[in-house]
Design a protein that fits this description.
The chain is mostly beta strands and 163 residues long. The chain has one helix at 7-22; strands at residues 26-33, 39-40, 45-51, 57-67, 74-82, 88-96, 107-109, 112-123, 129-137, 143-144, 147-157. Helix content is 10%, strand content 51%.
Length: 163
């Protein structure tokens, strides 16, 4: 008996298996596109993530998509987490999007690159409800050009720090 392998069917099965294993850990993932002309200094990017699990540990990542014309090596941003009971947690984060020679460090090719930044690790949510995350650029530019999208991802983490 001869077995015929359909490459399209194999690809679909592999994609389904990959999604089913990675999606188990992912609780929230969303992007916000920024205006083409640039990111205003005081403009907030906000995400609202519903949380029901207060037992597991989570990692929180910010995804930064930048164009090849972004004028700096680094990127500063401010984060604010507002819990359902109104508690506020703020942080200032710097990440490098390019090395000293100007080579982009994130994944991607052509004109768009993506950097993933771990912002909080091994976090346990104290209360179920909707958590609000606000991100603001901290580059001191009235209009920051070259950052195209900002994303927020929350995913389960093992207690030992493993993904």
């Amino acid at each position: 008996m001869k077995i015929h392998r359909n490459p399209v069917a194999i690809s679909i099965v592999c994609l389904f298996m990959l999604c089913s294993t990675s999606c188990d850990r992912e609780m929230f993932f969303q992007y916000t596109a920024l205006p083409e002309e640039g990111w205003q200094k005081d403009e907030l990017v906000a995400f609202e993530a519903p949380v029901s699990d207060t037992i597991s540990h989570y990692n929180i990542y910010v995804h930064i998509r930048n164009a090849g014309d972004y004028p700096y090596q680094n990127f500063w941003f401010f984060t604010k987490e507002i819990s359902p009971d109104g508690r506020v947690s703020c942080d200032t984060i710097e990440c490098y999007l390019a090395d000293q020679r100007g080579k982009w460090l994130g994944s991607g090719a052509g004109a768009l690159f993506e950097m993933t930044v771990l912002c909080r690790q091994q976090l346990r949510f104290n209360r179920a409800g909707v958590y609000r995350y606000e991100i603001k650029q901290g580059m001191r530019e009235e209009l920051l050009r070259g950052i195209r999208d900002i994303g927020l991802r929350i995913e389960k983490s093992d207690i030992n720090g493993e993904k």
